[in-house]
TrEMBL record:
GO MF terms held by the record: deoxyribose-phosphate aldolase activity
Keywords in alphabetical order: Lyase, Schiff base
GO cellular component, one term: cytoplasm
Gene name for this UniProt entry: DERA
Name listed for the protein in its UniProt record: deoxyribose-phosphate aldolase
Organism: Nomascus leucogenys
InterPro entries per record: Aldolase_TIM, DeoC, DeoC/FbaB/LacD_aldolase
Functional pathway: Carbohydrate degradation; 2-deoxy-D-ribose 1-phosphate degradation; D-glyceraldehyde 3-phosphate and acetaldehyde from 2-deoxy-alpha-D-ribose 1-phosphate: step 2/2
Family as reported in the entry's similarity comment: Belongs to the DeoC/FbaB aldolase family. DeoC type 2 subfamily.
Enzyme Commission number: 4.1.2.4
Amino acid sequence: PRLHNRRTWVSECVFLSILDLTEQIQARRSVKKEWQAAWLLKAVTFIDLTTLSGDDTSSNIQRLCYKAKYPIREDLLKALNMHDKGITTAAVCVYPARVCDAVKALKAAGCNIPVASVATGFPAGQTHLKTRLEEIRLAVEDGATEIDVVINRSLVLTGQWEGSDFIKTSTGKETVNATFPVAIVMLRAIRDFFWKTGNKIGFKPAGGIRSAKDSLAWLSLVKEELGDEWLKPELFRIGASTLLSDIERQIYHHVTGRYAAYHDLPMS
């Protein structure tokens, strides 16, 4: 009983420590005003610009890809002297059936932004293994260079899992998605794994990340837990569909001193 009580006490202490750190991230750790625009532009380069709607069409995929190449209005970038830095999102993320549309649109736009696809029975991952493997094969054949694999989570729950090159907070289709307490646990697992093996595993929070303020908190969290080495698209992504709009809105405010009207910053 004493051992059980001690384990419970340790678990509670760890939990409270994580909650305390979460509050600090949300309340105290903020980027100073003069650096916000730079950090927001950096956040753009980590975004997997995503559309995973049942009514996706080739036309809205084209608009998404255009926005991926031109995430911030050029006049705003010029005002920040960043118009020639080639700022784009990290990738475009779509369903397997829309990979061809995305590849075609990005090629027409003259850019080489990666196309990621949520293959393997998204979002549940409960389809037959043969079907999931075939979905990956077809997505790659159509031009996807990154696959967000949805594993059969029963394997994790029963302890049958190995390391991967990236881990993600959720599919983005759950009731609760990317949260800081869960992220801290994942980031520390990545850190421990790196210390033990020397292998760097990437991290992707996804689902419910909508505000520019949140994006800065995520960058700060990764920087503090894993260091600057992880602040690059090869090891850090943010899965989001509406976040970019708020980042552009905040940059507009930074440049002009006022908030944009709806028609000033269309998703295009």
